[in-house]
Specification:
binds flavin mononucleotide, Rossmann fold, 9 helices, binds adenosine-5'-triphosphate
Length: 297
Amino acid sequence: MEYIKIEGQFPKFSNCAVTLGKFDGIHRGHRKLIQKILEHKKEYGTTSVVVAFVSDRQTILTGEERRLLLEDMGVDVLLECPLNEQIRHMKADQFIRQILIGSLQASFVVVGEDYRFGYERKGTPDLLKKAGLKYGYETEIVPKEMDGSRKISSTFIREELKKGNMHKISELLGTDFFVAGEVEHGKGLGHKKFFPTTNLVPPKQKLMPPNGVYVTVSKFGDTEYQGITNVGYKPTVGEDFLGVETYLFDCDEDLYGKDCIVFFRKFQRPEHKFASFEALKAQIARDIEAGHAFFEK
Ligand SMILES: Cc1cc2nc3c(=O)[nH]c(=O)nc-3n(C[C@H](O)[C@H](O)[C@H](O)COP(=O)(O)O)c2cc1C
Ligand SMILES: Nc1ncnc2c1ncn2[C@@H]1O[C@H](COP(=O)(O)OP(=O)(O)OP(=O)(O)O)[C@@H](O)[C@H]1O
């Protein structure tokens, strides 16, 4: 996949199947749109392009995680465009002419039914459709993917993430919430005093569920390990950064420096400050038991 961070002008492409939005999280609704551009590519040989508008607020997926996911899905080009003043002030018809037609030579554009773009959010799916008739591209407007009576959206997922409702989040995303990163060294206390663990440090940009213990699955390439993960600052020992620390079941490999993806299945309990290492160790043993019980179910 070609990844381009827009810093000024959009690059030139031709014959593109394009979808537009913020694409934070890549939920089931987003997947439908992406599937449409991939199908169009398969049928007509277009270049599948995701245009993702990014701001500097915290996100469900980091930029890197989104790249991994879209690449995995088979998208050809990801154009990451900062929501700066220039873009915010661009009128909808100018966006269509300059970017969709001028830069991307779009032949297919797909958006959700309530998508808005351009200055004062005046750009609508209907406007895209009308312009398509004039400029010769096809438009597909996708009905909102629902969860019961509520539309699936990144906002909905953010709310559930705050509550640590990992099961609901998996339903909305169509996959488990995950953290991707390289395994780092902890203080090494885990190894000496407790259990061996893998440590990831998510960037501050990443929205995380509440600090606490989660049942997880960690992936290293094609190898998967079930495990139990603590998210937080380890108040018993005191850490000054938020870590994602996992005890992997049935693993005695040295995984330092390896790329890892931790998939969150279930919230188990909040993080506590324990009076002694012994008390923490006893609790971690119970967490591990609860993790095993979850997977045996
Ligand atoms: C399943 C699990 C649960 C944990 N729960 C807590 C907790 O509630 N409070 C806490 O202070 N640390 C908790 N920890 C973190 C331990 O304090 C940590 O493993 C230990 O300090 C070793 O850290 P190190 O590998 O960075 O040396 C937990 C770790 C694991 C793997
Ligand atoms: N549930 C959905 N079903 C179908 N399409 C959707 C759905 N949600 C969003 N889309 C479409 O996906 C594209 C990207 O959506 P975007 O990420 O901007 O919004 P969102 O997921 O609703 O997030 P937020 O809650 O932050 O507005 C847009 O074209 C949007 O209309």
